[in-house]
Amino acid sequence: MKILDVVCSKGRTGFYFDDQRAIKAGAEHDGFTYIGKPVTDGFKAVRQAGEAVSVMIIVEDGQIGYGDCAAVQYSGAGGRDPLFLAEDFIPVIDKMIKPRLIGRELNSFKELAEEIDNLNDENGKRIHTALRYGVTQAILDAVAKAKKQLMCEVVADEYKTQVSETGIAIFTQSGDDRYNNVDKMIIKNAEVLPHGLINNVKEKLGENGELLLEYVGWLRERIMKLKTTPDYAPVLHIDVYGTIGLAFKNDVDRMVEYFRQLEKAAAPLHLRIEGPVDVEEREQQIKVLAEITSRLHKENIKVEIVADEWCNTFQDIKDFADKGAGDMLQIKTPDLGGINNTIEAVLYCQKKGVGAYQGGTCNETNRSAEVCVHLAMATKPAQMLAKPGMGVDEGYMIVYNEMQRILAVRKSRK
């Protein structure tokens, strides 16, 4: 079965592009938007509508493989590729990618995906991560349709894995509405919650961590009050954006003692802390996270450390895993480019005995989220992110429902 055509359309994402540099420089909230001028190249406002490109691969029998090119909320920041705007990048697909795909046989996802993922532009630089992300999604779907398989089954066949016979734990994120949204998560029995968005020492963490301690205690009590089944015990996973390091001046001894307090506040629930420190340099970040992780293990403090900052590419993930820099690593799917890298990253973490968190961004689409469910079902990460958006319900629905479809279809074949 061959590719007949590649068609693109402009799309919207489930959230927004935010100019992180402008926000850090002092841009203030005005309702849901920001006051101030953008700083990062390509931005026309500090917050602007997220854009995507839907890629449709037309198979010669008339079927269509779908994928969505999308980039993270803070595009253009932290060494990432520039702002991803549809009108700028649809011509790149038409000029550079479409001619490579038309006429190709749909007999191997891995082969075609790796080719696109390693494609360079006219300046010798790899094409935008969002392009690699969306086009490889469409390739996977097209190969699955050509082979009359589910996408997860194609991945399992080509990477020698087994499709999960149970759902993958879904991690829901609250955004700033960290109280009302938690109620939604509990009502829906989310397995991992709430993310929390603890990105400010004074307002959210506390100068000595007291505000986060109070919040963790509230989470525990709220879950006990609202749970509808006696055995419901979700994992608490809180992203602190390096604020613990800021509050305790990156003093490992003080941070370890604080984690002991957090463990007690969360008990009997299990606690994960994402991004406890950000020392703003990759090698030092690996070193500090490895030290914190090792100390917690040595002192039998049951708090898992999740790596995020400076752990962006597949190579980063390998290096963090090799050095034990975290109990779990977030695999930010759009930042890795081709979805073949997400597959490889999860498998590498498992090989190294490190937890794999198949993450992403609120600024994706329903389609990219659905494809990511198939990757998760084929590779079995410890958890995957409910996405897109920050409203809990929509992202959880998209991920949960696709997971259940996979389970039901495969069960019906037995």
UniProtKB/TrEMBL annotation:
Its EC number is 4.3.1.2. Gene3D superfamilies: Enolase-like C-terminal domain (3.20.20.120), Enolase-like, N-terminal domain (3.30.390.10). It holds the Pfam family MAAL_N. It is an enzyme of class 4 (lyase). The keyword Metal-binding applies. Keywords: Lyase, Magnesium, Metal-binding. GO terms for molecular function: methylaspartate ammonia-lyase activity. Residues 163-411 form the Methylaspartate ammonia-lyase C-terminal domain. Pathway: Amino-acid degradation; L-glutamate degradation via mesaconate pathway; acetate and pyruvate from L-glutamate: step 2/4. Its cofactor is Mg(2+). Belongs to the methylaspartate ammonia-lyase family. Homodimer. PANTHER family: O-SUCCINYLBENZOATE SYNTHASE (PTHR48073:SF2), O-SUCCINYLBENZOATE SYNTHASE-RELATED (PTHR48073). This is methylaspartate ammonia-lyase.
